[in-house]
Amino acid sequence: MFDQALAAAPESTADADALVARMFDVEATSLVRLARVFCDDRNAAEDLVQEAFIRLHRSAGSIRDLERAPAFLRSIVINLARDHNRRGLMSLRHRNSVAAVPPPPVTEPDDQAVADDDAEQVLAALRTLPERQRACLVLHYYEELSISEVADTLGISKNSVKTHCKRGLASLESRLEADR
């Protein structure tokens, strides 16, 4: 997971800069992918992640356990995406039809078209789920976080994560079956 760049919580601006730089190297790509699941615009997702790193820098001095910094960042990104969508700030000018979930590698053009269509259907169905179910599913299955890490990121219990995942998977299955 996160390789501690600092031995303790950042006490100076230089320490905070080092923490943010290290976190950016380790987490930025996965955070953009995470944000893309919640907002359909790559530019907006990148802006949300940038804002998350700004907020991390501002509050770096209050982080007591550096191992929790990745969870803190994921939580910020999810909350920013939720606020972004709630305010109706989804940008349509850069709407991209490429799904955030990469399709499996295929060699034939027809197979690629089917894989792209399947990924888009899954992503569309995922976006219809309640926010908490979607967050649990994305963090656990897409970001491959453990149940404990998802619970830590979202600030909920492990049992809540399990419940949201189970209900979210059932909803996804029924939505995808209805589409077929």
Write the layout of secondary structure elements.
Elements: H1 13-38, H2 42-58, H3 69-86, H4 109-127, H5 131-142, H6 147-154, H7 158-179
Helix pairs in contact: 1-2, 1-3, 2-3, 3-6, 4-7, 5-6, 5-7, 6-7
How would you describe this protein?
With 180 residues, this protein is an all-alpha fold. The chain folds into 2 domains: 74 residues, Rna Polymerase Sigma Factor, Chain: A (Orthogonal Bundle), CATH 1.10.1740; 71 residues, Winged helix-like DNA-binding domain superfamily/Winged helix DNA-binding domain (Arc Repressor Mutant, subunit A). It contains 7 helices and no strands. Helix 1 packs antiparallel against helix 2, helix 2 packs across helix 3 and helix 5 crosses helix 7. It is globular. The protein starts with 12 loop residues before the first helix and ends with a helix. The N terminus is likely disordered.
Task: Provide the descriptors you would attach to this structure in a database record.
single chain, 180 residues, mainly alpha, Rna Polymerase Sigma Factor, Chain: A, Arc Repressor Mutant, subunit A, 2 domains, globular
